[in-house]
Design a protein that fits this description.
about 170 residues; mainly alpha; 7 helices
Length: about 170
């Protein structure tokens, strides 16, 4: 009986997940959430370069994930109100609190009108909510990175093409 010859199998290289966000929006949000203002300066100056629809979808996905992680399903008005109060203490007049509360409630499935909110108010509300999430996880870099990497994946999975960091 003839012996079969088998080829040596090559080790399969599994893709290594990124350790930190790989899009410009992901990096901008990371630096904002972790309050790394010295590092976010150059990205803030370039914000218009990566404020494309693809990049916006990274921010939207990050906001959605943060809201999901901050609130249990079917949370009541009290829990959202407590977060908004804490955010008002932390961010002061920077927080567009009615818009922020409306966006959070909308994301939680409540029938809230958000169509009339300005892009500026929505953007500010999302970024400050992400800052509150970072505070909630005690600015743990691994937690923040995991949220943003998931947001980038969602944006790409939804067919968007946010700008990649160098």
């Amino acid at each position: 009986m003839a012996r079969r010859r088998y080829r040596k199998s090559q080790p399969v290289e599994l893709p290594i997940p990124p350790l930190m966000p790989r899009t410009l929006m992901g990096r901008f949000l990371r630096e904002s959430m972790l309050r790394q203002s010295s590092e976010s300066g150059p990205l803030t100056a370039r914000f218009s370069e990566f404020s494309s629809l693809g990049s916006v979808h990274v921010m939207i996905a990050a906001f959605q994930i943060a809201v999901d992680r901050l609130f249990e399903p079917n949370n009541g008005l009290k829990d959202v109100g407590l977060l908004i109060s804490a955010m008002q203490r932390a961010f002061g007049l920077e927080l567009p609190w009615p818009e922020t509360e409306a966006l959070i409630r909308f994301e939680m499935g409540e029938d809230v009108a958000i169509e009339d909110l300005s892009v500026r108010a929505k953007t500010s509300a999302m970024i400050l909510t992400l800052g509150a999430y970072a505070d909630f996880v005690e600015r743990n870099e691994a937690e923040v990175d995991a949220l943003l990497i998931e947001a980038e994946r969602r944006a790409f999975d939804r067919g968007h093409h946010p700008e990649l960091a160098e």
